Amino acid sequence: MNSIPDIKKSTEAKMDQSIQAFKNNLTKIRTGRANPALLDTVQVDYYGSMVPISQVANVSLIDARTIGVQPWEKGMGAKIEKAIRESDLGLNPASMGDLIRVPMPPMSEERRKEMTKLVRQEGEGAKIAIRNLRRDANEHVKKLVKDKQASEDDQKRAEADVQKVTDRHIAEIDQLVHAKEQEILAV
């Protein structure tokens, strides 16, 4: 990091990555609706190695509350079904010939509250990551000032710019949290 523009650019890129990671985490949080990404974390035994379901089957939506899993090979169906049942997602798959149907169970009020709490925690974690990036950027700028590579005016401007980027990312996280909560609470 040898210039203020470099620091700003790298900080913004890292903040964007944090938002992306947060979005990925949100897709794993269950709502009442079916979402093929829900099964991304489920691993299945494929000839001795554990692989994601998406590498041994087509995962698609049958309707708003049902995911369909179509294995590419005969004999994988039972393994996929077992992997989904044993995952911590609380799903109960059912085979219909070659197709495995994974219905989304309706969520109880209590479960919805738990999920919104989880969404808020994830959001808080993402905000902490963003704030840490802001702190790191400001420390880099202070070091440049200390090493006489930038003036104190540059430092103030850079810190204001970094704060603007931080505020924008935090607002985006709040918006994502709000949208996910609405999705969870919609019956």
TrEMBL record:
What CDD domains would the database entry show?
Answer: RRF (cd00520)
Q: Which UniProt keywords apply?
A: Cytoplasm, Protein biosynthesis
The family database entries (Pfam families) matched by this protein are listed as: RRF
Q: Where is this region: Disordered?
A: 144-164
Primary location: cytoplasm
What residue stretches are annotated with the Ribosome recycling factor domain?
A: 22-185
Q: Does the keyword Magnesium apply?
A: no
- Subcellular location, record wording: Cytoplasm
Gene3D superfamilies hit by this protein: 3.30.1360.40, Ribosome-recycling factor (1.10.132.20)
Q: Which residues form a coiled coil?
A: none
- Top-level lineage group: Bacteria
Family that this chain belongs to: Belongs to the RRF family.
Q: Which NCBIfam families does its entry note?
A: frr
Among HAMAP family, the record links this protein to: RRF
> What job does this protein perform?
Responsible for the release of ribosomes from messenger RNA at the termination of protein biosynthesis. May increase the efficiency of translation by recycling ribosomes from one round of translation to another.
Q: What is this protein called?
A: Ribosome-recycling factor
Source species: Ramlibacter aquaticus
